[in-house]
């Protein structure tokens, strides 16, 4: 088993479901770019796709059919990534609003059984807070703090580079959760292979609480049906910047 890197994220505010959802989405965005799955940050992919939707991608390359075909192919790949991630994020938001989430697991690799890397986002007290009264400023601050913690962690910097592969997302929630999009995986166990990182989310409030004695049988893993495969080259990016 590879040595696990632990990143401790200390937050001053309580961890509401909105913050949990934001943390997971920021973790996914971080991994897509920092782990070489995307050639540019995800927000740049969003900008590029939305910009291309409002104009004709072929408008200034009509005289070069070969380049036009290449750009069309790369654009379709980028748009597929955008659509998959947006679908995932939309359903992540709905998930956290409908049930209590104990942890989230993001795997990078060809299969969930033998991934190259695994990232566990662990909410220390999953039932600590379920308030919807949270400002966007606080949520964004928590997300930025997570990204800074990941980027500045020296142990994560020692992870070997990986080539573009598949991203699988799992959620650990109550077995009784009535989830419409995420698929229950009653026999799934987090794999032990690959480079590993555990992100422990802690708050000042949670440290004052007594550890909750959860029955392991109460929780079950659910898998997102969308598998993100972020495989497109820089050709489209270079053309978009011209």
TrEMBL record:
One GO biological process term is: regulation of exit from mitosis
Q: Which Pfam families does the entry mention?
A: p31comet
Any one of the GO CC terms: nucleus
* Protein name as it appears in the record: MAD2L1-binding protein
Q: Which organism is it from?
A: Stylophora pistillata
Query: What is the name of the gene encoding this protein?
Result: MAD2L1BP
């Amino acid at each position: 088993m590879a040595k696990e890197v632990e990143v401790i994220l200390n937050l001053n505010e309580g961890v509401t479901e909105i913050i949990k959802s934001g943390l997971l989405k920021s973790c996914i965005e971080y991994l897509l770019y920092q782990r070489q799955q995307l050639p540019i940050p995800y927000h740049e992919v969003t900008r590029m796709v939305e910009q291309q939707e409002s104009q004709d991608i072929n408008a200034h390359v009509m005289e070069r059919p070969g380049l036009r075909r290449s750009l069309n192919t790369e654009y379709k790949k980028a748009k597929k990534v955008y659509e998959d991630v947006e679908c995932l994020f939309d359903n992540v938001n709905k998930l956290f609003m409908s049930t209590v989430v104990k942890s989230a697991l993001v795997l990078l690799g060809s299969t969930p059984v033998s991934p190259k890397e695994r990232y566990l986002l662990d909410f220390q007290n999953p039932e600590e807070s379920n308030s919807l009264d949270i400002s966007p400023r606080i949520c964004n601050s928590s997300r930025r703090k997570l990204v800074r913690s990941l980027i500045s962690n020296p142990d994560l910097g020692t992870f070997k580079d990986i080539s573009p592969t598949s991203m699988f997302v799992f959620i650990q929630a109550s077995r009784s959760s009535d989830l419409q999009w995420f698929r229950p995986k009653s026999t799934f166990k987090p794999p032990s292979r690959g480079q590993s990182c555990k992100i422990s989310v802690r708050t000042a409030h949670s440290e004052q609480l007594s550890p909750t004695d959860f029955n392991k049988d109460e929780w079950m893993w659910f898998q997102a049906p969308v598998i993100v495969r972020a495989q497109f080259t820089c050709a489209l990016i270079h053309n978009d910047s011209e």
